[in-house]
Amino acid sequence: MRLALPETAPFPTDARLTEFTCASTDSLMAVAEKCLDNRLGVCFVLDARQRLLGRITLQQIRKAVVDGRAFSGAGVGHFVEGPLATEAPKYEAAMPVLADDGRMVDVEVDRSREPVQIARPDLSHDELRAVIDALLSTWISSKGSYIEAFEREFASFNGVGHGIAVSNGTVALHLALVALGIGPGDEVIVPDLTFAATINAVLYCGATPVIVDADETTWTMSLAQVERACTTRTRAIIPVHLYGRPAEIGPIAEFAKCRGIFVVEDCAEAHGARFGGRLVGQFSDIACFSFYGNKIVTTGEGGMCLTDSGRLAATLLELRSHGMKPGGGYWHEVVGFNYRMTNLQAALGAMQLRKIAQTLRRNLDLQQLYREHLQDIPGVTFAPSLSTTYEPVVWLCCALVSDHKRDHVIETAKRADIELRPFFHRLSDMPPYRTYAQSCPVAARLARTGLNLPTSSAVDAAVLSKVTAVFKRALAG
User: Fold this and answer.
1) Considering Cα of 330, then 334, then 336, then 340, what sign does the dihedral take?
2) Would you list the DSSP string of 290-301?
3) SS3 of residue 284 by DSSP
4) Measuring CA to CA, which residue among 419, 421, 418 is closest to residue 466?
């Protein structure tokens, strides 16, 4: 039944209430922005007296966009299907609080009522507007103003001269190694505890990966391990800044420079981390970043190579675009790749970059809150503190539990609609890489005991309490 549409009401002035309410004559797209900005995907529709007419969700708005009704000019009141139930459904994270006269006076928010994902992109009206702008420009492939802006601004944020946007973080690593001339007969040092993209990029080039253990304190590659693994065939080192924790990148880069060895930083999980006061990404011949949907900055899928070398930047650009030089027409000097990012993706990334400081602060605060809530539970530990030389960021919050309890903790959380994730398997344990396997006891222990915890704007006090209860229940006795 379609509700009658009263005149537009003065909008509620309470900031909290304003986030979640709209007038019945507001446009669907304006309400879509509110649903994104409040991070719950719902908005309550009020009449002229601030009485509740119903609610509108992003799911409803998406349907109206697809079938065209969102562009009919009708106010949001036309899309309200009926009054709300008096009791919260199982997955209703926001519920209205009504006065006796039916006016909405507050909103009760409890994100623990909805399933809690390990991560979710933090999208707002800024990203929505930019992506629509890129679409309307008709520049939807690998050229457009957002590509240039995102490359320039991300390179500037990291204090590096050149940014080359690519289609994902894995191809960023591959492109970097190819640009440096890495190939058959070359050895490339990689950590045992990392996502498989790191070693896959080496194998794509026909080179030989040399696996090293993680450091007890940093969980990443150390200079001592690099020194032991280095041979006359070592051509490159790929330090991975794991879960936002920097590797010992300064000394590794100095060691490599003295021996004519290339360094490719894998910064996929560490946007904004520092070593010795310098941002990661500044220490290497080429630094590689990922913008996957769960990363600190996201373009959905995407990545970037950063370098201070104009020569390497030109090589990366040529290889990225089928081996064609910019402005050179359809003439190919080398065999290249189609590793380009689209303007639509870059529009998303450019807006994400504007709020990176806010995202990093939120994640650091979450890690501290998890520590405060879980540290007194027997069997739960956290990453060792680092010296002031290291300034980590948090990609995903981490905790450690005993290996014989970890699966039980994950299953207990799953029954409570909370997603926990084990650390990466170490490379040496997986079938494609056993030829290169090494004895890496620290990496093995971390891979068996590490847990990633939900890390996003969806984690509030109620979610923290729910996670804490899961750990207590799973580890009791």
Assistant:
1) negative
2) E-BTTSSS--BS
3) coil
4) 418
92-110 burial code (b ≥16 CB/10 A, e <16): bbbbbebeeeebbeebebb
Maximum pairwise Cα distance, the chain: 81
- Cα angle at 216 between 382 and 426, to 5 degrees? 90
Handedness of CA 31, 36, 38, 41 (dihedral sign): positive
Q: Is 215 in contact with 221 (CB distance < 8 Å)?
A: yes
DSSP conformational letter for 325: P
Cβ neighbours, 10 Å, residue 361: 12
- Strand spans (E) along 175-218: 187-191, 208-212
Cα 28 from Cα 439, distance rounded (Å):
58
Give the relative orientation of helices 343-354 and 145-157 as an angle to the nearest 10 degrees: 40
pTM of the model: 0.94
Which residues, in sequence order, are CB contacts of 33 under 8 Å at separation 6+? Answer: 124, 125, 128
pLDDT at 326: 85
Q: In a 3-state reduction of DSSP, which class is residue 263?
A: strand
pLDDT of amino acid 9: 37
pLDDT for 86: 44
Q: Which residues of the chain have pLDDT under 70?
A: 1-13, 81-91, 477
Type of residue at 185: G
166 within 8 A of 305, measured Cβ to Cβ: yes
pLDDT at 2: 31
| Confidence (pLDDT) at 81 | 66
> How far is it, in rounded angstroms, from Cα 168 to Cα 143?
17
* Cα-based angle 466, 469, 472 (whole degrees, multiple of 5): 155
H or E element: which one contains 409?
helix 403-415
106: part of which helix (H) or strand (E)?
A: strand 104-109
d(CA 455, CA 49): 39
Look up residue 92 and give its amino acid: E
Tokens of 225: 């391990």
Residue pLDDT, tens place only, 186-220: 999 999 999 999 999 999 999 999 999 999 999 99
Tell me the two tokens of residue 313. 């930047």
SS3 57: strand
Question: Taking a C-beta distance cutoff of 8 angstroms, is the pair 275, 284 a contact?
Answer: no
Q: What is the structure's pLDDT at 78?
A: 87
Q: What is the pLDDT of residue 44?
A: 95
Reduce the DSSP state of residue 419 to 3 states and report it. Answer: coil
Please enumerate, as own/partner, the contacts of 56-59 that have beta carbons within 8 Å and a separation of 24 or more: 56/22, 56/28, 56/31, 56/80, 58/32
